[in-house]
Structures are given as structure tokens and as C-alpha cells.
Amino acid sequence: MKREKSSLKPLTLAQRRATGAKPRHLRPTVKRDSITPPDVGQIGDFHGADPQPQRGGAGGTFGSLDTNLEIDEQNIDNVAPPTTDNGIVPNLKWSFSLSHTRLLKGGWVREQVITDLPPSVDIAAAELSLGPNAYRELHWHRVAEWGYILNGTGRVSAIDENGRSYISDVRGPENGADPDLYYFPPGVPHSIQALGTGLEILIIFTDGNFDRSGTTFMLSDWLAHTPLEIVAQNLGLNVSELGGIPQKDPYIIQATVPPPPLGQGDSSAPVSPEGTVPNPFVFRISEQEKTVAKGGGGWVKIQDSTNFKVSKEVASALVFIEPNGLRELHWHTKDEWLYILHGHGRATAFSGSSTARTFDFQVGDTGVFPVSYGHYMKNLSPTEPLILLEVFKSDKFVDFSATQWLALTPPQVVADLLNISVAAVQTFKKDKQLIVA
């Protein structure tokens, strides 16, 4: 991640351990604007007091045992929503801090699946941490796997359906540079190994119900449930040599022999007679030019099949919103799954039929805006950027800008609809702004 200011904290999960930075989900210290008449939807400000379910003349106060104040402070718009919220919109937010963590020899993993966030039908996610030299065992999936390197260094290897091989080292954000991505199409067998001090990854799967049976297939688990004489015949070995096959899926394995160091993965990799894969499974975001938002409020980097050829089922955008900036009012043709890398944000989801709900986001939160839901993302901080990932089950990134639509509609039509002057309509930007300062 490029740091626009030297004061920014590292944008990695490792900040919980190595940097001494504050851990996730402390009460935010964002300075909020006071709500003064007229109420135009500002975020609630309780001036240092505990948040209460009240806004203007409506609502009341909590009793002494009614609430969890730390959760309330992180979700002001649940406690005192803007008056523009209306109707029933399901929960569209999930924090990885609420996920169950599976502790393993060599690392840990925690997931967000459809049972955690039911509206996320297209996408499930996991945070995976591998200790030095540990690796995710050989496996493949029924669905596509996309990974964003949060911290550390590692090595991925795979083959395609023609037996062409692939091996590449991957890096998290180092020396101010953006991290790497990887993508494995459905069915492609692969492994991931940590190098150096370890590896942490945000992993995306193109099925919200990722934990269903028949989605992930572990090689050792398969062999353990195949008659041993068949395995021996298939591999050209004696049965006596196969007595150590794990009888229970290890998920993560701690290597007994360290792998070749970073940059030397090819030194011990077998050479396929079929050659190497034609389109790399790894994408270097650090080598990608950022698109500066015409609205002046930040930048984006988009990765999809137009520049990451192999990524046919996942499109993504790394979005940098400057202090007080706004990811403009927009919508998508696919569900948007999001992940907050840095900062604090606020978004309202409009689901049509006069229904809307506002959510507050911070580091480690995930969320989903279902297909065609109108929404925005506001950076709540006057000093810190808001950095997030937008991810889609799609071959291409697509969004529609509300301002651009209005600007390219006959002005009198818009003026009549919004009850504003034609002169005001004519000031609307005809170019997609993406982010507004």
C-alpha cells in the first residue's frame, strides 16, 4: 500500500503483533460533526458521553445494563441512525473479530461465510496466517480462489489442466509498495507456503456457502480415503512406503526443511515437460498505475480480466479515499463485497422501495452491497485515509455513477425531478468522479 503520508500506520494484520500499533476494534477517536438543525443525516456526536438511542426529539436512553458500549461506539449509526434510514434492510456488515478462529500447528484461519453474513451469496472470505516455512497443504476447490497478501512473504505453486507448471513468490506491502494478488481458477490444484517471518492473506472464494461439502478437496485427505494398494499402484510405490499418509486433514503443515529463500523458488522446482502456464496466477499491484479520481478525493487500482488475464471470476478494486473524501454515490451489476484495510468509513445502503440503512466500518470489517443497491463510502476521518477493497464475482469491474447519470440526462428533466434549478444541474460533472474530495 502506498503511503500518502509518513504518519500512516502499517496497513497489515501484522500491526497486531509486530509494530506496536493499537489493535483492531478499539473505540474510534474520529471527531464527528455535531448534529444541528436542520438534521441532514450527519453522524451522531455525543460529545464524549456514551452513545444513546436518541436523535433530535426521538428515542431515549439506555438503562445501565441495556447495552455493550464498546460495540455501540463502533456502530453509532445502529444506535442513532440518520432520519433518512427507513424500513427493514438486513445486516450487511460482519467483523472478522466475531469469526471463530481455528488454531493449527503452523498458523490459524478464520472465515466469513454465508451463515455469518447471509446477504453475501456470491463471496465468502477467510483470513489465513502461516508461520515461517508453514504451508497450506496441497488442495483444490470447486470455486475460484483469490488472495490479497496482507503481510509477509510467501510462495505459491500450481499446475493447470494441461500440466503446465507455475511457481511465484508473493509479497505483502513492503517499503510503501502495494502488495501482490493471486488467483486460482476453479479446479486448479495449488499450495501456498510462508517464507521469512510468515505470511498473512485475505482469501476470497466465489461462493458464499463456501463451507458446504464438495467445495474444498485436500490431497492427503483424498489419499487417506482411497484403498492404499490403489494409491501405491497409482504412484508407483510400495505400500510400505505410504504408511505415513495423514489420516486426518492437517490443513496447515509445518515444513521440516526450509524452502529456498525469497526469489529462489525456481531453484528446486520441478520442470514440467509441458512448459509453464501462459497467464500468471500472480498480479503485482505495485507495478500497476493508480487511477487518480477526477473528483479529487483519492485514487483506485482496478484488477480484473482486462489486466489480470487469468482472473475470469473475480474483479477487484483497491480504493484510497483521502481524509473527509467520499466514494461517490454508485451501484454495481454484481454484489460488492468489501474489506476495510485502514481507517473508518460510513455507508448507507439503499435497497429500493423507500428502504435504506446506514452502517459504520473500521479495520477488519467486511460488508456486502447486494446487486444494484445504491451506496457510497464516506471517510469519517479529517486526518487519516480510508483504504478498502471492493471485490466482485465477475470478470470485469463495473459501476454506475449517480452524478454522471444526472449530468448526462436532459437538464430540465433533472431539475423537475429534484426541484432544483437548471443552472444547478448544469454544474454536475459529466465524467465519473469515483471519489469526491
TrEMBL record:
Keywords: Manganese, Metal-binding. It comes from Collybia nuda. One of its GO terms (molecular function) is metal ion binding. Residues 96-243, 283-426 form the Cupin type-1 domain. Signal peptide: none annotated. Mn(2+) 1 binds at residues 139, 141, 145, 190. Residues 1-66 are annotated as: Disordered. One of its GO terms (biological process) is oxalate metabolic process. It comes from the Eukaryota. The active site is at 390 (proton donor). Pfam families: Cupin_1. Binds 2 manganese ions per subunit. This is RmlC-like cupin domain-containing protein. Mn(2+) 2 binds at residues 330, 332, 336, 375. Its cofactor is Mn(2+). PANTHER family: OXALATE-BINDING PROTEIN, SLL1358 PROTEIN.
